[in-house]
Amino acid sequence: MNRLEKLLGALLVLALTNLPVWSALAGLPGLAAAGLALLLTVGFTAFNLMPMWRRDAFTRLGAMVGGEILTVVNLFTLTANMALFLCWGFQMEALAIPLASFVVGIVLAVLSGVILSLNGLLRMMASSVQLGVRRRVLLLLFWWFPVVNVVLLWRACRTVREEYRFETEKLALNEVRRESELCATRYPIVLVHGVFFRDTRFLNYWGRIPAELLRNGARVFYGNQQSAASVAGCAAELKERVEAVVRETGCEKVNLIAHSKGGLDCRYAISRLGLAPMVATLTTINTPHRGCAFVDWLLKKCPSSVCSHIAKTYNAALRRFGDKNPDFLAAVRDLTSERCKLFNEEVRNAPGVVYRSVGSKMWSARSAPMPLFLTYRFVRHFDNENDGLVGVESMPWGDAFRMVDPPGRRGISHGDMIDLNRQNIRGFDVREFYVSLVRALRDQGF
After folding, report:
1. pTM attached to this predicted model
2. What are φ and ψ of residue 106, in 5° steps?
3. Domain of 226: which CATH number?
4. Domain end marker among 173, 207, 232
């Protein structure tokens, strides 16, 4: 990828850093050498400002892949310069290379390496989504460690190249199907979040999914219920929100897509609070319809004083994030298998509403970053196959259940299903998954 930019960039850097030696060997007049040095310096500066010569050079993706170009050029030219200056050093007397020219060349090589390295690294770290926190921390810590830094930088470049390819293909796909409006459903979409999260303006619970749906013609709204409260309490807030969306749009009904506990909130609002006439479909994503057995165990084993302290701490924090009446313990208790069994007996599916469900599972603890890689084995002890929080057996509900099971041994975690980490997963494009989900609703007249 970008081979021409890398080749010309490497030649430019090598010409600039070796110019003092080459000028001495060629016997160039001082004025000619100075003019050539100025020309190469201007070219080096331009290359650092715009390493990629494409239309999208100044977009996020352009800045990111520009960092990859600069990093690869730096790795190559530093290696080449080490070999060249070793040769110059052994041949100084035989070739009559002035010591001053040799020293200036080394200084230029080091200086250009520092500039290229800093520019490339900062570009990639500032613009790449897929590098993640762990790789960024490792790069910052081991940037100056020989060999280790080369390995880390090369892996970072590979990640960036893959991200650029993936995102440009996605942009091209959306450009082709722009007029099709695949997600232009009859009724608008309301995305309903799970427990301990809120719908905020600057940190979207659903990652890159809403933007992708909007690009493909969807009308998207959010549940906006509290992050931690009982199912009944969140359902009451959700009902008010759906009523507001119906009034605002004049749409009569909505399609609900709910993740985790949000699915229970929706079911309660539909069946017990009279929201059914305003709901066309409910699609639950990794919802614990039959509860989480590990939560039962935790509540039984955890001393009441400890539970109360944790609840008070969480409630105080959640109030700062906008919850009016947070109730940590009520939210947790409603996720127990005992409470969900009673819930399913009392909350029946409403006639006229189409119920569907989706689930996923992790294949191992390596399938997800913190904290799900810690909880996976613990949940597996109680609930067998799981997504890091919810057992697979608890996820099915309604007329149809779909298990997301991409090829490979990675699996899909609870957070992956809402693009929590904004991670491109081989074999599973979460944004495209939701496009297909909403497209199916459109094709079925919803």
Report:
1. 0.84
2. -65, -45
3. 3.40.50.1820
4. 173
